[in-house]
Amino acid sequence: MTNLKEHFDVAVIGGGGAGMVAAISASRQGARVVICEKMPKLGKKVRIAGNGRCNITNDRLDTTCYNPESKPIVESIFARFGRIDILNFFKQLGLRFFSDKEGRVFPITNQSASVMDALELELARLGVEVRYHCEVTDIKKILRGFSINTKSESINVRNVILCAGGKSYPIGGTDGSAYSLALAFGHTLVEPVPSTVPLVVHDPWCKHLTGQKITASVRYQINGVTGPVVSGDLLFTDYGLSGLAILDSSEELSIAIHRDKSKDTWVVIDLIPFMHEDELVKELSSRLRRKFPAEKLLMGLLPPKFSHVLADILKIRDPKTIASIVKNKKFHVAGTRGWNDAEFTAGGINYHEVNERTLESQKCPGLFLAGEILDVNGKRGGFNLAWAWASGFVAGLEAAKK
Ligand SMILES: Cc1cc2nc3c(=O)[nH]c(=O)nc-3n(C[C@H](O)[C@H](O)[C@H](O)COP(=O)(O)OP(=O)(O)OC[C@H]3O[C@@H](n4cnc5c(N)ncnc54)[C@H](O)[C@@H]3O)c2cc1C
After folding, report:
1. Residue whose CA lies nearest to ligand 1 atom number 14
2. CA atoms within 13 Å, Cβ hemisphere of 352
3. Cα(402)–Cα(387) distance, rounded to whole angstroms?
4. Cα(308) to centroid of ligand 1, in Å?
C-alpha cells in the first residue's frame, strides 16, 4: 500500500476526538498513519468534555439534534457508523457506560481520562505515529499525494484527513486558523459563530441578581419570531445570563447577532414556569387579599432578591400585571461571551463540498474532512462528540482504502 517515496499513507491533521478515531480506523485497514497535533497532548477537548466526565454520545442520537440543513450528511455518516457502532468501538477498547435520564452516555468511571486512556492505548498498539507540537501550516498537492508542512518539517503522505476542529475554546488548540488549510483547496466557509455560549445582557437585573440561579423556561425572540421553550437552569451574572437553559437557546441568537448582524435579539423568560399564568394570578390575588406586603408577594415562588428588582411592579398590587411580567420577562441580548466561553462552533467548512458518504473533498481528491471543522453542529448532550467519532471513523476507513 505504501509508496516508497512517501513516508505515510495517511496524515491526520489534529488529534482531537475525530482525529484519534480517524487514525485508529485508517491504521486498522493497514495504513501507515501519522497524527500531527499542535498541542503537547492529544484530545484536549475530550479531556474537558462534559466537565471532565466525557459525554460520549446520546441514546437518542438522530439527525434532528443537528443543524437541520446538515441532515443528509449526518444521516449518511451515522448509517455507516451510528450509536451502536460508537458504543461497540469503545467497548472493544475496554470501556463500559451508563446513561442518564436525558439519554446522555458517559463512561462508567465518569472520567474522560478513561476515554483518553482507551484511545491512546489503541493508537500505540496500532503503531500510529503521533507528532506533538506539530502545527501544520500548509498542505500542498504533489504528484503522488500531499506534502504536509509544519514550521520545522515537511512530511509526504498519500492522503490527508483534516480534523483540526472549529473555533470554540481556543485553549483546547482550536482558534479557527486551520480553516485556511481547507480554503487553500477552494473550499468555502460558512461563517463560524460561537454556539452554546453565555449571553451578554446590559440590564440592571443582571447586576442586582448576579450569582442567583433559578429554574426557568427560556425562549429566544429574533426579529419578532419566537423560538421553542427550553427549560432548565438560569444563572444571572455580572455580564448577563448563563445556565443550561441559556446555553441551549444561544445558537440561534449567536447566528442572528454575529452572522446576520441583527439587533432585534431577545430572550423571554418565564421566571415561575411551574405555575400557569391564571393560577399565579389567583395566588397573587389571594395574597393581596391577605394583605401581604409588596416585598413578600412572591415569597416562596422566587428567591427574595427578586422582590428588589421587581419592587416598582409589586407596588402596583395588580395580580395580572405582576403575573404577566414574571411569566414573560424580556431581556435584550447585546452579544455573546465569544469563543473562549463557547462549547461548540456553529458554521465551518461547507459540507456540500465533501462526498456525504466518504467525506472526501470534492475540491481535492485524497483530502478528507471530519469533525467540528465541518459545518455540522449538534445540541448539547453528546451529539458533537458522536459526530466527531463517527465522521472520523468513516474518513479514516476511506482514506486508508484510497
Ligand atoms: C468545555 C467543552 C465541553 C464539551 N463537552 C462535550 C460533551 O460532553 N459532549 C460532546 O458531545 N461534546 C462536547 N464538547 C464538544 C466536543 O468536545 C467537540 O465538538 C469535539 O471535541 C470536536 O472534535 P474534533 O476532533 O472535530 O475537534 P477538536 O477536539 O477541537 O480537535 C482538533 C484538534 O486539532 C488540533 N489542531 C488545530 N489546528 C491544527 C493544526 N494547524 N495543526 C495540527 N493540529 C491542529 C487541535 O489542537 C485539536 O487537538 C465540549 C466542548 C467544550 C469546549
Report:
1. 49
2. 5
3. 22
4. 42
CA of 164 to the centre of ligand 1 (A): 8
Question: Max Cα separation, the chain?
Answer: 90
Binding site membership of 346 for ligand 1 (Cβ less than 6 Å)? no
Which has the closest alpha carbon to 14: 32, 33, 37?
A: 37
Inter-residue long-range contacts of 225-234, CB under 8 Å, 24+ positions, other chains counted = 226/268, 227/252, 229/270, 231/273, 234/269
Is 48 a pocket residue for ligand 1 (Cβ < 6 Å)?
yes
- Separation of CA 40 and ligand 1 centre (Å): 14
Phi, psi of 228 (to 5 degrees): -70, 160
Q: Find where cell 422566587 sits.
A: 302
- 44 C-alpha vs ligand 1 centroid, how far in Å? 7
SS3 state of residue 181:
helix
- The residue whose CA has the least distance to atom 53 of ligand 1 is 343
User: Cα of 45 to ligand 1 centre, how many Å?
Assistant: 5
Q: Is 176 in the pocket of ligand 1 (CB under 6 A)?
A: no
Domain regions of the chain by residue span = 8-193+345-401, 199-336
- Among 45, 77, 372, which is best to mutate for testing ligand 1, by the most ligand atoms less than 8 A from CB? 45
Q: Is the CB of 364 under 6 A from ligand 1?
A: no
pLDDT tens-digit profile, the chain (402 residues): 333 444 799 999 999 999 999 999 999 999 999 999 999 999 999 999 999 999 999 999 999 999 999 999 999 999 999 999 999 999 999 999 999 999 999 999 999 999 999 999 999 999 999 999 999 999 999 988 999 999 888 999 999 999 999 999 999 999 999 999 999 999 999 999 999 999 999 999 999 999 999 999 999 999 999 999 999 999 999 999 999 999 999 999 999 999 999 999 999 999 999 999 999 999 999 999 999 999 999 999 999 999 999 999 999 999 999 999 999 999 999 999 999 999 999 999 999 999 999 999 999 999 999 999 999 999 999 999 999 999 999 999 999 998
Q: Supply the pTM of this predicted model.
A: 0.95
- CATH topology assigned to domain 8-193+345-401: FAD/NAD(P)-binding domain (3.50.50)
Distance 220 CA to ligand 1 centre (A): 27
